Structures are given as structure tokens and as C-alpha cells.
UniProtKB/TrEMBL annotation:
The gene is cobA. This is uroporphyrinogen-III C-methyltransferase. Keywords: Methyltransferase, Porphyrin biosynthesis, S-adenosyl-L-methionine, Transferase. Residues 4-214 form the Tetrapyrrole methylase domain. Residues 265-492 form the Tetrapyrrole biosynthesis uroporphyrinogen III synthase domain.
Length: 500
């Protein structure tokens, strides 16, 4: 049975600009055939077994010829596979999608096309340029600048007379000729032009000038391919509509040291604010909740009248184990539930329980202050938490009543180990603007992984709260800023304030 090929537009660069259908195709594919302009981040959504084939083209240095690409896609589909052909922007805008589709249909392969946001429109938008505007342009024209390869001559006389916005793709090697041809055919030399390099990505750079000087400006600023060349009065709107480059964390690289499974919230918030999160998981969570001593205690959970949760991990592992053991939330009907902070409380809510107490200060001391006057010697407290937690809470509460600590997980050295040298180099070359620490173990492990705290001395180190800061100082590291609220939003607030 023949498979199927989806010709999918990946959007202009920002990976979130793909369509829902496009993402579905990535998630379902047996094979993904992709090129240079499709965001690599999109590939992380593939199935584990999915085969990846890179057929990227640098404009003059083709990795694979178009014929070879057609053959690869066709062959895989005829083997019965679902093939997602992922292309930058829209597959039919200078993407040779039409040729690929035709080739496949001629050979009896089922083809479906998922349009994407073309860089010609989306790339301009991210540079603050609306491609049409009632005051400036009532049409637009998307033109290939790669004249030699296309082996066609453009009608410059007509192009120069158009009143709409002109957008040249693949035009950087011809920029000088494009300007000269437009001026030579009567377009005003002071017509505004923008060159947008790596539009919609963290590398976006924009040069603005006129037909007369844009070539020199672009050379001076070192912009090359891939770039869009936008010609017309709409370029003037950039002054007011430049939302992307004005994002609060634009251009900032932030190291995220949390465990991979947990890093997504922080990373996503950084990304949505225009920053670049660099994930380097220094810790990994190891589930210990299966151990007999722990399951025995969980079976007796009903005997406790206080349960204290000090992390999201603790909540998840404890409740999942409870459910595995055949217990449900009725077991906790008489218990007071304490959460160390909002995020932990939110996690508890997922299990249909509402935390009764969330202290003002999101640390163990905060919990102790809330509880010390409520507790009596008859109370029984259960604390499911990390093996390496500080002694403070258990020691202090033990002075009042019975306390049982359940070490439901431990944090071990993370999975970032493969990219260790790379990260070390980036830190030493000051390519990273901020390093975030969300727990003491992220501090200790980062130091362990890069080998020497000295390497971190010149970096801006951001701490989630006083306990993490203390660990940093013990290792001789300077805390650049500490979050006021000891959670992820607290860290985000610090990052934004630093930028401002
Ligand atoms: N199908 C794509 C275009 C492919 S042709 C689309 O719809 O966007 C390749 C050219 O597109 C590049 O040479 C460049 O001119 C432009 N391009 C694509 N993505 C770009 C980006 N993120 N930034 C700037 N130019 C881009």
C-alpha cells in the first residue's frame, strides 16, 4: 500500500507560526524530509521512531539536487510511509512544492498540501512592516531575486512602476542590481527599503534605508542570506509597529538549568517574551516512590492529619503512587493540605484537591511559621519530598509532633551532559546573558558539570530564592539578582527588570 506525502509549510521561522494541521503532520510522520529554513525546534515534536532526512539547500551549495529530493520522498511514500515534507514558509511560495507535488502525483502517490505563513508576509510583519496599508500600498508582489538560477529576466520596467509593496526573496546576491534596475526604470531613489535577515527568529536583524543606499548599509551591517528585501512606503510603519524587536527579552539568551521535564514552563515564558531559552538540564528527577518503605507508608496515609508538599515533583510522584496503589483522594478527607507555594498548590489542584495553607514565604521557614501555632502534640504530619531536602522543616516540626518524611524522589546529575563543552564555551565567551537557578541542586550540578565555579564568575546569575542564593554563595558565586517571589514568575520578573 502506498503511503502519503504531506507538503507542509513550517512558517517563516518562529516555530509557533506553524498551523495546527502542520504540527499534526509532524507528530504523525514516519519520515520527515526537511530543509534549512524549517525551524529545528519543530522536529522535537516528532515521534521517537520517525526518520529525519535533511535535504537543506544553502543557496549556492546544494546538499541534494531537486531530483534526488523528489526520489527520496517518492521512495519513502511507496514503501507505505507517511512522509511529511517540511518546508520553510509556504510550500508553494518559491519552495518548489508544486514540482514535488506533481512528481509524486505522476507516480500515484497521494499528496496533501498544508499551507504555511510565507516569510514574504510573516517576516515583514515581525519587522514591523504591514505588507499592505491603506495609506501606502494597495497591492503586493512577491518576486524571486535569484534570477540566474531561475534563468529568467524580470520585467523591470513594469516592476518599477508598481505602486504596491515589492518583496524579493532569494535576492541578497542581487541586491545591488535590484536597486539599480528599479532606479534605472524610474522608481524614486529615496523609496524606503528594508532588508530582514532571519526574520521571526532570535537572529532577526533588520537594515533600513532607501533604494540608493540599502546595499551599502546591508554590507556594513553584515546581513546576508536568508533575507527578505521589502521595497515601498510601508517600510515607514516599522517605527510604530515593531512589536517583535521591542519584546521585553528580545535578543537575550537565558540558560535554563532545570530538569528537562520541568524546563518547559520557564523556557516557554522566556520565548514568548522574545528571549532565547537555552535548555541545559543539570538535574534529573529519579522516582523513588516505588520503594517498599514508601509504599507501606502511603498505604497508611489516612492516619495523617497534615500532608506537606514542598515541590511539584513531590505532588506528582506521591499522588500517582497513591492512585497506583488503589487509593483515592477520600483517604485525605480529614487531612490539612499544605503547599509551599502557588505552583505546588496548582499541581495539587490537578488531583482535585485544594491546598488549605500556602505560606507567604515560599520556603520551608515560611511553612514552619504558618504551622507552629496550629500544631499540637497529637498531630501527625507526612512530608513527601526530595531525598536531599534540608533538615530544617522535619527537625523543627518534630519538636512539636510526629513527622514522617517520605523521600519520594531524588535529583541526580542531569541529561545536559552531552552538550557540556558547548555550554561551557558559550559561558566563557559571554554568549549567555543570564543563567537561571531554580534550586540548590541546579547550582551544585552546573558547577559539577562545567568543572569549575570560576567559569561562572563573569556571568549574571539569577537565583529563585534565598536557599538557592545561599548555595551559590557557599560555592563562591555572586548572586546577580534574587527573585522576590520564589517561583518561575519571580525569575521572569527579574529577567524583565534586568532588561529594563
Ligand atoms: N517558501 C518560503 C520561501 C523559500 S525561498 C516562504 O514561503 O517563505 C527562500 C527564501 O525565502 C530565502 O532566500 C529568503 O529570501 C526567504 N526567507 C525564508 N525564510 C526567511 C526568514 N526567516 N528570514 C528571511 N528570509 C527568509
Amino acid at each position: 500500500m502506498s503511503g502519503k506525502v504531506f507538503l507542509v509549510g513550517a512558517g517563516p521561522g518562529d516555530y509557533k507560526l506553524i498551523t495546527m494541521k502542520g504540527l499534526e503532520c509532524i507528530k504523525d510522520a514516519d519520515v520527515i524530509v526537511y530543509d534549512r529554513l524549517a525551524s529545528p525546534k519543530l522536529l522535537t515534536y516528532k515521534r521517537n521512531e520517525c526518520e529525519l532526512i535533511y535535504v537543506g539547500k544553502e543557496s549556492s551549495n546544494h546538499t541534494k539536487t531537486q531530483d534526488e529530493i523528489n526520489e527520496i520522498i517518492c521512495e519513502k511514500a511507496l514503501e507505505g510511509k507517511i512522509v511529511t515534507r517540511l518546508k520553510g514558509g509556504d510550500p508553494y511560495v518559491f519552495g518548489r512544492g508544486g514540482e514535488e507535488g506533481q512528481y509524486l502525483i505522476d507516480r500515484g502517490v497521494d499528496v496533501e498540501v498544508i499551507p504555511g505563513i510565507t516569510s514574504a508576509i510573516g517576516g515583514l510583519a515581525y519587522a514591523g512592516i504591514p505588507i499592505t496599508h491603506r495609506d501606502y500600498a494597495s497591492s503586493f508582489h512577491v518576486i524571486t531575486g535569484h534570477l540566474k538560477e531561475e534563468n529568467q529576466e524580470l520585467n523591470w520596467e513594469v516592476l518599477a512602476k508598481l505602486k504596491g509593496t515589492l518583496v524579493f526573496l532569494m535576492g541578497m546576491s542581487e541586491l545591488k542590481n535590484i536597486s539599480a534596475n528599479l532606479i534605472g526604470n524610474g522608481m524614486k531613489a529615496n523609496t524606503p527599503v528594508a532588508v530582514i535577515n532571519w526574520a521571526t527568529t532570535e537572529r532577526q536583524k533588520v537594515a533600513v534605508g532607501t533604494l540608493d543606499d540599502i546595499y551599502d548599509i546591508t554590507l556594513r551591517e553584515g546581513l546576508s542570506s536568508p533575507s527578505l528585501i521589502a521595497v515601498g512606503d510601508v517600510v515607514k510603519m516599522r517605527g510604530s509597529l515593531n512589536f517583535f524587536e521591542n519584546k521585553l527579552l528580545n535578543g537575550k539568551k537565558v540558560l535554563v538549568t532545570r530538569a528537562r521535564a520541568q524546563s518547559s514552563t520557564l523556557s516557554d515564558k522566556i520565548y514568548n517574551l522574545g528571549g532565547t531559552p537555552i535548555e541545559f538540564p543539570t538535574i534529573k528527577i529519579e522516582d523513588l516512590s516505588e520503594e517498599k518503605s514508601i509504599t507501606d507508608e502511603i498505604m497508611k496515609v489516612k492516619e495523617y492529619n497534615y500532608i506537606i508538599f514542598t515541590s511539584q515533583n513531590g505532588v506528582k510522584l506521591f499522588f500517582n503512587r497513591m492512585i497506583d496503589l488503589g487509593l483515592d483522594m477520600r483517604q485525605l478527607a480529614n487531612a490539612t493540605i499544605v503547599a509551599i507555594g502557588n505552583v505546588t498548590a496548582q499541581e495539587i489542584k490537578k488531583y482535585n484537591l485544594i491546598a488549605d495553607i500556602v505560606p507567604k514565604k515560599y520556603i520551608a521557614e515560611g511553612i514552619y511559621e504558618e504551622l507552629e501555632n496550629r500544631l499540637s502534640s497529637d498531630d501527625k504530619i507526612l512530608i513527601p519530598r526530595a531525598k536531599e531536602s534540608r533538615d530544617f522543616l522535619v527537625d523543627e516540626l518534630n519538636k512539636i509532633c510526629f513527622v514522617k518524611e517520605l523521600k519520594v524522589y531524588q535529583t541526580v546529575l542531569g541529561e545536559g551532559i552531552q552538550s557540556q563543552d558547548n555550554i561551557k564555551k558559550m559561558i566563557m565567551n559571554k554568549e549567555i546573558d543570564y543563567i537561571t537557578f531554580t534550586s540548590s541542586s541546579t547550582v551544585k550540578n552546573l558547577v559539577k558539570m562545567i568543572g569549575d565555579p570560576e567559569i561562572l564568575k563573569n556571568s549574571h546569575l539569577i537565583s529563585i530564592g534565598p536557599i538557592t542564593s545561599k548555595t551559590m554563595m557557599e560555592l563562591g558565586l555572586e548572586v546577580y539578582r534574587e527573585a522576590e517571589d520564589y517561583d518561575i514568575d519571580g525569575i521572569i520578573k527579574v529577567l524583565v527588570d534586568c532588561k529594563g
